Amino acid sequence: MKKFIFYTIKSVQENCDTFSCRFKAGFLSRLWLLVLGTILMTDYTAKAQNILGTAPVVAPKGGFAIDGNAFVNYSGEAGGDFLFQVGVTDASANPGGIFKPVPPLFNGQPYTYPDGPLPTPGQTGADSFYVYPLTTFFRDNITINDPTIFTSTNKINDNISSYSWGMGSSPNKNEIQNAIAHFTHGDPINFPGQNPPVLATDLWLIFAADRQVTDGSSYIDFEILQKKLEMTVTGKDSKGYDKGVFTSYAGTPSGRLPGDLLITVEFTKGGVSANVVVRRWTGTAYGDPITPPTGAVYGTNNTAQTIVPYPIYNQAPFATNPNVWAYEPNQWAEGAVNITRIFADFSTPDACFTISTLFVRTRTSGSSGQSELKDFPGAPFQVNLCSDQVKPVISTTATSGALEGCNPTVTPPTFTGLDNCDGVFTPVVTTTGPTNIGCAYTQTWNANYTDKCNNVADQKSITYTWTSDTTLPVIADKPDYTLAGCNPDWPAVVTTTYTDNCDAGGSINGVAGDVQTSQDGCTQYRDYTFNFTDSCLNVALTQTTRVSKHYDLTAPVIADKPDVVLEGCNPAWPTVVTTTYSDNCDAGGSINGVAGDVQTSQDGCTQYRDYTFNFTDSCLNVALTQTTRVSRHYDETAPVIVDKPDVVLEGCNPAWPTVVTTTYSDNCDAGGSINGVAGDVQTSQDGCTQYRDYTFNFTDSCLNVALTQTTRVSRHFDETAPVIVDKPDVVLEGCNPAWPTVVTTTYSDNCDAGGSINGVAGDVQTSQDGCTQYRDYTFNFTDSCLNVALTQTTRVSRHYDETAPVLICAADKTVACGTTVVFEPPTATDNCTGNITINDLGDGIPVTNADGSITYSHSWSATDECTNISIPCIQMVTVGDCGNGCTPGFWKTHPELWDNCNDPVVKAIPGDTCGAAGGEFTTSTGFVAYFGITTNCGQGCNISNLPTTMGAAMGAGGGGCKKLARTGVAALLNASALGSKYLDFLGLDFNQLYMAIKEGFNTCNYEPLATQLDNANNQNHDLCSGLPGTIQTDAISLIEATAKTTSNAVFDAYPVPFKDQFTIRYKFDYVSDVKIEVFNAQGISVLTKTDTNSYLNKEITLDLKTSKGQEQVYIVKVTTNRGSSTKKVVSSR
């Protein structure tokens, strides 16, 4: 059995109280073989036989009937079965089936039951075939080569580590094709009063399986292990199949633990019942058979035909529409096993246990310890099955609630745990918090635990609440303040507020301190102190507020300000005259005097006024009065400025004068000189004259202003550069034109007259692609005022191309005889863009070669737009010799040439041993034996269909193998009679020709060889026409002798390209007269030379300087007495 397919396994239990949590998809597909592990463990003896009855399970409905049949109510026990009752379509029927009553389509078509498990929902095109999710149906592949066979003489009790496996075969009595497994639980509601009682926690396995043959004894082992066992690949065998060993995690030499189970199903030869034997591992071996508990096992084989809806062992359907198949008696078995009771201690059905691996295999006999292991269906199956369904219990002595007092010490609660299997455990405690809203704190501890079988305990939670306050209350800092007025009374009370993070806020009164006086005696103050403690005895920081008052009974003092003389002439009287005062308490300051009337001196040049000062402080203390006199100088007559004439400066753009000066006089002050103030520069309308007005003003010491005078200074002004006209870039016409002798443009100037100037030519520069050259012509000019114009540049370009285009002919080629000579047009490229003209130079003179082939040539040249002409190129086409051969009809009508051992054609055949069995080649030689044909190709080409003799092959009609028979025999006769003249055309020697024909028959590939030989055999050699009924031996010998003398005249030519001369070197190793010919591209001979002393590597120099054109292609032909060869050479400029 091989190629079992399963899914990934998860732990059996995820949510212990539900059926689905126990069996994920992977567990279902891998555990199906456990079905067979308890097949027919019937009765309650060490070797159990058929027990019929109904397994008390919840699915299918009505329990499961163990009756040897597959359908509900089909001549068996009442109750559910694998398939619904015939005619029922309702999947909710009771009793019911495990598979849907109407099988779904797969990808829109009826399911054909290929190898592997039934498709499951989620696969492309698949729907569920099952009523219940924890069901699987599996079909095993049946082949000759089984990749999972025990490869050494392993016994049941051997250490698992000594087992080896690989590819092999096993007897068909050990072959199983179809198996079914379904997992469910006990149904105490519908099956009450049984002994022992049915438990809802009982895990049941319902199964069925078949075997291929019933005429031998079959033994199937199902080993159930508590620790994991894996199949390990260690390499590959000589045929590329995997091989390996087994790896156990039990940690024991045997790879097993005490209590592991071995369940053996025995189908005995001729027996009417299947036997089931159960053994336990004792530590060193599997012990004697044990008796299972009552009610734990049901099972039976079929005692009559069992009808099923799926194909079995390549049998034809038992009936059609719909198709059904039938098992013969003793070929099918089914059963049900209470797994919980089998794997636990029989006396404690709720005991804790774990199953890791199920290992299924076959063996040679029923002897437990000595029988040899044979086959196993695939890797051991990892099941990870756990029996425990009881939740662990978590306890604590703590209770949720509020903790006493402020800021209590919080001690986390303690949790303990107890599990029915794990025993005492420590729960996993997590906490959230503490969290708070203000000062109210809360924290919760959650205790959880999941046991080894994934049973989750009910969570236990404890929550504490408490008040936490270590924050001080805050007293509002009342700002210090000063009482209003002078010498006020102290306040009766001073109040502020406080706040607390937990308690409510409020107000408090400060405690008044002693009255204190400042050092200057003008301020008195008292400090008011504030304190507060909250309900959690947190003491606020002390705050203090100082209350101050102004205290003053002393008069201020006014400073006596000296009399003042105002500066300058006719100054305005001061708006205010100020002096200062000081006070013992108030800050000092300034006060304004009260102005008296204006009075004038006797000479009228001086005036004065008296200012009086008074002050009273903030406490109404009055100072003594003070007086100050203010005097000024008086004058209002203007001075006179002399008028200076206008000035014109010399030269071009002269500098403006640093200073322009004139004089003035005054009625009171002394006279003098003054400088003019330069005005803005102004420009004439034409822009060539500028002038500035210098203005003269004067004010005397008494600020009397003279009348203004102005002098204009002018100059010639030109700072504008002339302008050179930007001449556009120029592209010269044609190819490679001469540069211009002079390039001219014009200029203009704002003040001077315009004109023309010539550009200065720069160096010639070339573009990156080499196809464009250019020169920059530079223009410069300076005007009469030395203003330099901006440089202008004009680029003159020309198309530059002196490089010939490159012409590439198509590669020389050789074509078969009769092929029309076609020359392919060449391709041309040029270093510059533009049209390229291809010039057809015509055909050359055909050259006939010594081997019978003819070489044709055609040449071309190319011209670009600048008339540069390329090196010509030439393409040579060699038409192959049409060969020589006689038709099958010729050889058929002339058997006298090859019907006995003394015929010259027969004698010339290589390897012919005329007279020896199988060694001759005559008309009577056996055709199949001579070619060693061993393959029957069908379609009229089997060995029996082929010609019996070589002579019969000449008359074989039709295509395929018949065509190759007549053309192949004719080809060997032509090769013998005509020698290399014929074989050279084929490119084969006699042995290669023979092997090619032989391979064609043995591989059933007749073409294209048959057609190639047919062409070679139909060239009508002179020997094959116009002859009488007999042929002369010497004629054959003559043709053979001449045909075998052909060879090539190989040579090298260098240098390429050449100038004036080139050299050829002989590459043939025989002595011959040599003729050397040189042809141009048109096929015209330009040189002929003969050499009567040739030898290997001899060099001959040829001089073409009198005949050489410009860059031409030449054809060199060298002819010896064994043939001729040609090469192309190219000349340079």
Strand content: 25-35%
Helix amount, in percent? under 10%
The number of helical elements comes to: 13
- What count of domains describes the coordinates? 9
Give the overall average pLDDT.
83
- Strand arrangement across the biggest beta sheet: 1-14-13-10-19-20
Say how many strands there are: 73
Provide the low-confidence segments as ranges. 1-46, 1026-1047
Structural class: mainly beta
The radius of gyration over CA amounts to: 64 Å
Main beta sheet, described? 6 strands, antiparallel
Shape: flat
**C-alpha end-to-end distance:** 85 Å
What's the short version?
The chain is mostly beta strands and 1133 residues long. The protein contains 13 helices and 73 strands. Helices cover 8% and strands 34% of the residues.
Describe the structure.
The protein has 1133 residues and is mainly beta. The chain folds into nine domains: 53-386, no CATH class; 393-467; 474-550; 557-633; 640-716; 723-799; 806-880, Immunoglobulin-like (Sandwich), CATH 2.60.40; 888-1018, no CATH class; and more. It is built from 13 helices and 73 strands. The strands form 19 sheets. The chain has a six-stranded antiparallel beta sheet. The model is unreliable at 1-46 and 1026-1047 (pLDDT under 50).
